[in-house]
Amino acid sequence: MIEKTGVAPKDLFMQEFPADSDVLNDPKAIIECYKEIPCNPCETSCPFDAIHIGEDINKRPQIDFNACTGCGICVYNCPGLAISVRHLKGDKAVLKIPFEFTPRPAKDSMVNVVDRGGVVITTGKVIKVQDGKNQKQTALLHIEIDRDYIYDAITIEVPHGS
Amino acid sequence: MRIKEHPILSFDVDEMINFTYNGKALQGLKGDTIASALHANGIKKLSESIHLKRPRGFYCAIGNCASCNMVVDGVPNIRTCITPLKEGMVVENQVGKGRVYGT
Amino acid sequence: MEHKEVVIIGAGPAGLKAAKSLLDAGAHVTIIDRNKKLGGQLTKQTHKFFGSEKQFASFRGIDILELLVQDLGRYAERLNILNETSVVGLYKDKVLSCVKHDRYFKIKAKRIIMATGASEKHLPFENNDLPGIYAAGAVQTLMNEYGVKPGHKVLMVGSGNIGLIVSYQLMQAGVQVVALVEAASSISGYLVHASKIKRLGVDILTRTTIKKALGTDQVEKVVIWDVDDTWQGIKRTERTLHVDTVCISVGLAPLTELLMQVGAEVTYVRELGGNVPIINPYYETTVKGVYACGDALGIEEASSAMVEGALTGMFVAEDLGYTLEESTQKIKALKSELTFLRSGPHAEKIRTGYMKVGVKT
Fold first, then answer.
1. How far is the alpha carbon of A115 from chain B, nearest alpha carbon, in Å?
2. Is the separation of the CB atoms in C243 and C158 below 8 Å?
3. Is residue A52 part of a domain?
4. Hey, what domains does chain B have and what are their CATH numbers?
5. What does the alpha-carbon distance between residue C166 and residue C247 come to, in Å, rounded to a whole number?
6. Closest partner residue to B5 among A100, A102, A137, by Cβ?
7. Is residue A104 a part of any domain in this protein?
8. Which of C160, C211, C212, C166 is nearest to C186 (CA)?
9. What is the ipTM of this complex?
10. Closest chain C residue to B33, measured at CA
């Protein structure tokens, strides 16, 4: 399925989430890197040693949810933009997603949130735009959405999308 | 056709370069190649195929394929995709294989 | 005629890294490139690179270029750069004939490194020569180097990494990608790149290809259709799309014309993209003193080209009699980098290809 459309089916991406959803009461990085490629910046950028690939950089990253603090550093270091941070907060969820388009959405603005197939599933509120120099032009958007969408939401709609 | 805003790159050059294309006065920007300046002016047809006279644009944009050859300042077969645009250049569509000076 | 110690043809990732190794060793280096700017295709690569820290992973191609050029800065007195210069002839006595603007001149070199890279292939279909039909990398050059959009609505043909990456970069430039078609039954590039454009609304249509383009002086419409198991178009599946640009991303071919001219033995290897030179373990072709590295040897990623360039530069330096500090360890480390870059499932084609030409991967 994903090899034909680029869309990870739910049973596939759910394997990347912690089995116990309570783990997401703290922010955690979710890595959606399904095929072996020679790449390891997620591992080397993590200050908490929470992501492991090993000497053969083709291996898929393994995350240790106990060590992950959800800081988001791996999110903007991943060249494939395949990582997001997800956090359950009461009836809301907060996503930290990589974003490489202009203009950056304004803080407190409402945005359309899409699923992995590019379909708008809900609206979200931009609660923070992190755009530091060390991020090398990959912004980190903190988007607040309804908690029901914590699994399906992936990014926000961009004006030049199709 | 110019990119105004870009998340990674900045295109803030505003130094104009004047040139002519088939006798018509046009402007490009400093840093342009002949082909990029023409494209920014909406001109995609750069030459014609030798036998069937079919329209040709660039293809590779890195100096490989010769699809963008034009007559520049009287010299034919100039690869316009890698030739920097200069003030006062006279650029013309090339017909056929091109003729060298005085032949 | 000028005499030079080492001439490197091509200032891309392979050529610049080869220059660095040679300059480190103490050699005099001349780099020739037909473009004004150094960097080869790095000049347009706005995406972050894969690989490990050793190949600058997570840095954008354009920023890696700055780092590579900076690396050469302290060797200015031994480095000669001939930009806007095309090598038009290469002869067995290691004489190169060159053209810069309207000047024609010759250079004789002790050693030559061919880091000429690759060129993008085209695809046969009706009206495939209309203006507006460009190689995907060409569009990347137009946008990212010169700041010009190719058009407003694009059909991307081919789902390799270039097709996927350029689709994303078209969107970043404010251009709509109407669809991406791929004749094979699955996406050939990295899935992370595919997912990145799909979630932004680009439909990826596998088992689909372009049938024809329509327009008088430029593309106005295209017709796409489904293909069957034998790669033939299926009648009555035609759909018309209104686009003004078609990007062709169906692979690259190594640039080996000069190697063929000099008489280096080449062989056709489909997996490596076309005709590739036969090399010995030191990256020397069958013409003594003429070496090759990077995509000229077979199509790979820029990260492998950098490693190959660094290695080739070291071998040439040793061949010239320079002694390199810890060369055995350094060569071993670079070779192991290459092994890792070529050991994943995506590199299977490369491994098969190199096996055919007897290169150990």
1. 23
2. no
3. yes
4. 16-92 (3.10.20.440)
5. 9
6. A102
7. yes
8. C160
9. 0.97
10. C146
